[in-house]
């Protein structure tokens, strides 16, 4: 009580050593008052705090044999000292003032609170106090001194079977890791180098899976803990596989004989709901978002086929580009304007704009010589240049300004919410591709379709390079760098880059042509990713003959491959037939080849060719329809009947005959024809279409004048 810090510490250690003897422990009851005083004094005198931990340990030993010690403990409210969030005990766990002996003593006190003195813990009504012992144990588990960590780890080994123990401990360890990572101790000239914080967190996590046993209740939290920034910070590649998680997988298999993959697959839906929530990939906290994305990548390595449907169910709506594309240029300008300021582009301004007064002291328009003369003159006159004052607004101007600020803040919030969800969904897809490129190659068309369509929005400009790069890494065979650059520009929302886009497209097509000749055709998913570049080449009038032929060759080779997305290719081939007579035969062959694999419900692009101004395209439409298996199908396409009936009255006899042949094959009754679609064709821009529509309508009226003549006439008059 009266000695210095070193003397007091030595006295407590001597007393602890002596109390190992039963006789001394029986006689040491007179020391209770002094020990309690040490613990109480430490609250106000920081110098006593390290010694108070040893004092609490000794009191705990005395409580086992002397009721008076237990009473003194209760009267001094020492349990509250351990469970209070503002107590100095927690700060001692992360400071250099307490040594290993004192902290090991604290470990024993915490264990006693969790085992022999649960009643004190249950008496707490505040939730923060109920988890305080677990928070202390988590801090001790992550301590840089190995002896302290080992003592805390032994407590976990002894208590891990207690109900709810591991769940609470893992939660506190994760909270400790995400709030503020521990700083490594300052290096000293003597002794070993300090332990890095990431190492402390890694061994703490491994201690939370004693013997390799991992319950389903802590699975999600363990995944997050093993992939958070605090653990991955020391890795050479922060995006690499978490070595801690690999260790847990190994220990789990060794303990249970079951692969962790099987357990993850059973709980995949629950895991996805947590990872793709506002606390995961949609979080505004970048650390939490990075952690969730790393976990998604790890799950993709385990079993992408099981994970992908679950993830797409959660993010399908967020991958739709329409919510992003609905924002006007004014909304986007407002979003990029800092809060508290108005969007300054005058083209977007509406309503009252405050007057901007010219600053008479602004000399930026002067030349260097004029500014020198101006400065010399000012010195001669003895006048100092006054600081430009910001013009003050009147009360009416301030009200208008505040109103517009509120309006723009609301718009900015809407854009931010939509963009956050879109970016979170796109980054989730990117994580799946980065985690399992080989598995993602099969699903690349499905994964990339929604994400690349978002590139038309300027809001996604900064995100697209990383997304495109991840997608192209999944291509099989690998695509050249020129294709990646062309894809980025083709999906870009920036304007005025047509010449650069054409130049990159030429290089990309040449590179693809060489790759196909060397390695063979791309897989169906990879072809779906690179097809927009080929489509741009085939539909750009100034692309050049060589590039056009090369693109046509690449597309034609892939039409012989199963699994490709048929409708976009058919649409492009129809466009090529209409615009390029040289490539018309090759495009026609591709259309006929693809039509044989087309389902009856997906003939929309073929039907679009039925109203083309080029007779060869209309004939290709009919020949393609004739090759569709099972046409018209259980639910005929909405425009199938009206298009065939329209073509049956085409001015070209061969087209008319072919249309009647396909119409007879489909056996569609005239009574089911929607003649309103023929009426709409009367206002078509092409004269041939208008003429065919008029003849078709006349045939409908002639077939049953009593039933529909009056309706058609009244509709036309309207």
What does this structure look like?
The chain is built from 40 helices and no strands. It has 718 residues and is an all-alpha fold. It starts with a helix and ends with a helix. Residues 181-192 and 346-360 have low confidence and may be disordered.
Write the layout of secondary structure elements.
Elements lengths: L4 H14 L3 H6 L4 H10 L7 H15 L3 H9 L2 H6 L4 H5 L7 H16 L2 H5 L4 H4 L1 H10 L4 H14 L5 H15 L17 H11 L11 H9 L1 H4 L10 H14 L3 H7 L1 H8 L10 H30 L6 H4 L3 H8 L31 H14 L13 H41 L1 H6 L1 H10 L10 H10 L7 H10 L7 H22 L4 H16 L5 H14 L7 H14 L4 H12 L8 H6 L5 H13 L12 H8 L5 H14 L9 H6 L5 H17 L1 H13 L1
Helix pairs in contact: 1-4, 3-4, 4-5, 4-8, 8-11, 8-12, 11-12, 11-13, 12-14, 13-15, 15-20, 19-20, 20-24, 22-24, 24-26, 24-27, 26-27, 26-30, 27-28, 28-29, 28-30, 29-30, 29-31, 30-31, 30-32, 32-33, 33-35, 35-37, 36-37, 39-40
Compact overview of the structure:
The protein has 718 residues and is mainly alpha-helical. 65% of the residues lie in helices and 0% in strands.
Tally of DSSP β-strands: 0
> Which of globular, elongated, flat, extended, rod-shaped describes the shape?
elongated
Termini gap: 105 Å
Poorly predicted runs: 181-192, 346-360
Give the biggest beta sheet. Answer: none
Task: Output the radius of gyration.
Answer: 38 Å
Helix share bin: 55-70%
Structural class label: mainly alpha
Question: In percent, how much strand structure appears in the residues?
Answer: under 5%
Number of helices: 40
Mean pLDDT: 85
């Amino acid at each position: 009580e009266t000695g210095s810090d070193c003397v007091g510490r030595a006295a407590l250690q001597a007393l602890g050593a002596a109390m190992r003897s039963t006789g001394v422990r029986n006689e040491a009851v007179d020391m209770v008052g002094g020990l309690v005083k040490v613990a109480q004094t430490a609250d106000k005198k920081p110098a006593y705090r390290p010694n108070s931990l040893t004092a609490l340990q000794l009191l705990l030993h005395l409580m086992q044999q002397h009721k008076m010690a237990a009473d003194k403990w209760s009267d001094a409210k020492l349990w509250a000292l351990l469970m209070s969030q503002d107590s100095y005990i927690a700060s001692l766990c992360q400071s250099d003032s307490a040594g290993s002996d004192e902290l090991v003593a604290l470990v024993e006190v915490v264990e006693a609170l969790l085992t022999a003195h649960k009643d004190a813990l249950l008496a707490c009504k505040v939730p923060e106090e109920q988890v305080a012992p677990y928070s202390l144990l988590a801090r001790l588990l992550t301590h840089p001194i190995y002896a302290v960590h080992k003592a805390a780890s032994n407590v976990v080994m002894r208590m891990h079977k207690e109900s709810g123990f591991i769940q609470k401990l893992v939660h506190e360890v994760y909270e400790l890791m995400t709030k503020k990572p521990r700083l490594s101790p300052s290096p000293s000239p003597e002794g070993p180098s300090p332990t890095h914080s990431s190492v402390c967190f890694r061994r703490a996590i491994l201690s939370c899976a004693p013997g390799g046993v991992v319950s389903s209740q802590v699975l999600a939290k363990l995944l997050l803990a093993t992939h958070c920034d605090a653990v991955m910070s020391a890795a050479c590649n922060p995006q690499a596989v978490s070595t801690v998680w690999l260790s847990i997988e190994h220990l789990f298999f060794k303990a249970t004989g079951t692969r962790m993959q099987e357990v993850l697959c059973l709980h995949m839906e629950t895991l996805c709901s947590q990872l793709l929530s506002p606390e995961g990939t949609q979080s505004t906290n970048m650390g939490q978002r990075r952690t969730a994305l790393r976990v998604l990548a790890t799950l993709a390595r385990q079993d992408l086929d099981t994970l992908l449907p679950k993830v797409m169910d959660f993010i399908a709506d967020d991958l739709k580009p329409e919510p992003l594309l609905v924002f006007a240029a004014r909304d986007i300008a407002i979003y990029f304007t800092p809060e508290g300021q108005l969007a300054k582009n005058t083209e977007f301004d509406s309503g009252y704009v405050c007057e901007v007064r010219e600053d008479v002291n602004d000399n930026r328009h002067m030349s260097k010589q004029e500014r020198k003369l101006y400065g010399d003159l000012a010195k001669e006159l003895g006048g100092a240049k006054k600081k430009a004052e910001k013009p003050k607004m009147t009360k009416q101007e301030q009200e208008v300004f505040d109103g517009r600020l509120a309006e723009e803040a609301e718009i900015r919030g809407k854009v931010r919410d939509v963009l956050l969800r879109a970016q979170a969904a796109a980054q989730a897809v990117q994580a799946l591709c980065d985690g399992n490129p080989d598995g993602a190659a099969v699903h690349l068309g499905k994964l990339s379709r929604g994400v690349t369509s978002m590139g038309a929005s300027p809001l996604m400009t900064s995100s697209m390079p990383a997304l495109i790069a991840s997608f192209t890494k999944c291509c099989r065979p690998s695509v050249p760098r020129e294709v990646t650059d062309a894809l980025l520009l083709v999906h870009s929302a920036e304007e005025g880059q047509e010449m650069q886009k054409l130049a990159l497209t030429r290089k990309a097509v040449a590179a693809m042509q060489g790759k196909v000749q060397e390695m063979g055709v791309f897989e169906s998913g990879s072809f779906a990713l690179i097809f927009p570049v080929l489509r741009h080449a085939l539909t750009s009038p100034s692309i050049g003959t060589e590039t056009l032929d090369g693109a046509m060759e690449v597309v034609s080779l892939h039409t012989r491959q199963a699994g490709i997305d048929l409708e976009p290719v058919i649409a492009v081939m129809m466009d090529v037939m209409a615009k390029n007579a040289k490539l018309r035969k090759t495009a026609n062959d591709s259309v006929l080849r693809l039509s044989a694999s087309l389902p009856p419900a997906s003939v929309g692009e073929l039907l679009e060719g039925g109203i083309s101004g080029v007779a060869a395209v209309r004939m290709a439409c009919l020949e393609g329809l004739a090759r569709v298996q099972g046409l018209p199908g259980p639910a005929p396409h909405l425009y199938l009947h009206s298009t065939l009936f329209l073509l049956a009255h085409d001015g070209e006899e061969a087209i008319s005959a072919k249309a009647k042949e396909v119409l007879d094959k489909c056996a569609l009754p005239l009574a089911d024809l929607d003649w309103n679609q023929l009426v709409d064709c009367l206002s078509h821009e092409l004269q041939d279409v208008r003429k065919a529509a008029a003849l078709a309508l006349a045939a409908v009226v002639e077939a049953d004048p009593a039933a529909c003549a009056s309706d058609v006439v009244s509709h036309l008059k309207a």
